[in-house]
């Protein structure tokens, strides 16, 4: 049996600190000392035997695992211990001092709705036994047991309140540590993806475009050569080397493409964003005739859609959201609309707390590709995010660059 300071009221196991172990030991010693006092002051064989039986019952409860694990077993053990104490109380008035440790046991092992009446009955039995043994009535007869009961109730209930508060703080600290670890992992992952995108964009915009231009110039030079020129073979080999390196550059760009785009089209990746989850019901639709887009366009549109939908989940409190990808004659547009609480675009941003970093990031992505980015929203009227990118001019090298 563990004392009231050993684990929480819900009977959950708690690692004992040295202070709590000392309190448990003190309770055992207090019970043993009071039993010895009752046996010595009983001046009768019956009192001595009852004190020994009460001590044996208490010791059994202290060592039986079922008393610590089962509330039903603990209640049964407490009932037997109380009966032994009442018998000892009948034999000697000195047993009334045992009421104080019994208060703690009852408050610890029983639910509050049962422990408080049990404490009151124990205090009443102590007072009645004192009177029954012929002691003169005085205020101390009532004040002593009742004051002891009040101290025990205040101590145990106060401890339970402190324990609940410490457990709440412990859980908050654990959640904070977990969240910090997840945030660090997410930041590392986001940094990796951002670097992959940057490298893909740099390779596409510099190396791949340069090789494509070299290939076009070599074709023009080849057409300008006179028939049978000895330089024709060198130009053809140079053009073939440029074509091979252009294909290699494209493979690098594809390898650095975000995982969402590795095994499908932009439309498929956007549709996966709308799969049922913790956020609002989202729907995806395509307007116009889809055309193949350069990798930087697909990456930018996918990231803008992810960021806009993330804002909807975190800040908007929306029930529905809709993502539309529109292919027009000379441009491609992405619209993300929700029916959430909305915000003032000229204010602090959708979070309302001075944040709103996502909107400038989305705008920067769109403008880096020569596109436009607009946000339409008002408090209580939802939010609409729209980005339009001009379609690149067709290339003459027969492939996607």
What kind of sheet is the major sheet? 5 strands, mixed
Number of strands: 5
Average predicted confidence as pLDDT? 76
Order of H and E elements: HHHHHHHHHHEHEEHEE
- Structural class category: alpha+beta
General form: rod-shaped
Helix content: 55-70%
Core attributes:
single chain, 401 residues, alpha+beta, rod-shaped, disordered N terminus, disordered C terminus
Tell me what you see in this structure.
This protein has 401 residues and is an alpha+beta fold. The chain is 64% helix and 9% strand. The chain has a five-stranded mixed sheet with strand order 1-2-3-5-4. The longest helix is centred in the middle third of the chain and has 86 residues, at 139-224. It is rod-shaped. The two termini are 76 Å apart.
List the helices and strands and how they pair.
Layout (H helix, E strand, L loop, with lengths): L17 H25 L2 H19 L1 H5 L1 H21 L7 H11 L2 H21 L6 H86 L6 H25 L3 H4 L3 H8 L7 E7 L7 H22 L3 E8 L3 E8 L19 H11 L3 E6 L5 E8 L11
Parallel strand pairs: 1-2
Antiparallel strand pairs: 2-3, 3-5, 4-5
Helix pairs in contact: 1-2, 2-4, 4-5, 4-6, 5-6, 5-7, 6-7, 7-8, 10-11, 11-12
């Amino acid at each position: 049996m563990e004392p009231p300071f050993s684990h929480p009221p819900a009977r959950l196991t708690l690692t004992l600190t040295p202070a709590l172990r000392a309190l448990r030991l003190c309770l055992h010693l207090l019970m043993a000392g009071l039993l010895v006092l009752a046996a010595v002051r009983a001046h009768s064989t019956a009192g001595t035997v009852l004190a020994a039986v009460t001590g044996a019952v208490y010791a059994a409860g202290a060592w039986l695992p079922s008393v610590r694990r089962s509330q039903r077993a603990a209640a049964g053990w407490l009932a037997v211990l109380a009966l032994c104490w009442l018998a000892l109380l009948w034999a000697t008035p000195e047993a009334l001092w045992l009421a104080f440790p019994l208060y703690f046991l009852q408050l610890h092992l029983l639910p509050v709705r049962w422990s408080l009446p049990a404490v009151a009955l124990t205090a009443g039995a102590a007072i009645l036994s004192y009177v029954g043994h012929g002691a003169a009535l005085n205020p101390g007869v009532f004040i002593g047991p009742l004051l002891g009961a009040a101290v025990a109730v205040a101590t145990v209930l106060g401890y339970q309140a402190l324990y609940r508060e410490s457990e709440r703080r412990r859980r908050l600290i654990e959640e904070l540590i977990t969240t910090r670890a997840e945030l660090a992992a997410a930041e590392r992952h986001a940094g990796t993806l951002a670097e992959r995108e940057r490298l893909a964009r740099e390779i596409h915009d510099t190396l791949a475009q340069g090789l494509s231009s070299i290939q076009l110039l070599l074709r023009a030079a080849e057409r300008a050569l006179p028939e049978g020129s000895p330089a024709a073979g060198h130009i053809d080999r140079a053009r073939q080397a440029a074509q091979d390196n252009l294909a290699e550059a494209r493979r690098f760009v594809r390898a650095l493409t975000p995982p969402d785009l590795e095994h499908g089209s932009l439309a498929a990746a956007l549709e996966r964003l709308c799969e049922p989850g913790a956020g609002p019901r989202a729907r995806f639709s395509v307007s116009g005739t889809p055309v193949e887009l350069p990798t930087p366009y697909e990456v930018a549109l996918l990231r803008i859609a992810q960021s806009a939908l993330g804002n909807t989940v975190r800040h908007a409190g929306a029930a529905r959201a809709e993502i539309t990808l529109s292919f027009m004659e000379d441009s491609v547009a992405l619209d993300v609309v929700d029916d959430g609480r909305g915000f003032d675009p000229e204010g602090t941003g959708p979070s309302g707390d001075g944040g709103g970093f996502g909107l400038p990031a989305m705008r920067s992505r769109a403008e880096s590709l020569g596109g436009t980015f607009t946000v339409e929203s008002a408090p209580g009227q939802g939010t609409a995010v729209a980005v339009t990118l001009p379609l690149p001019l067709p290339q003459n090298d027969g492939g996607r660059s």
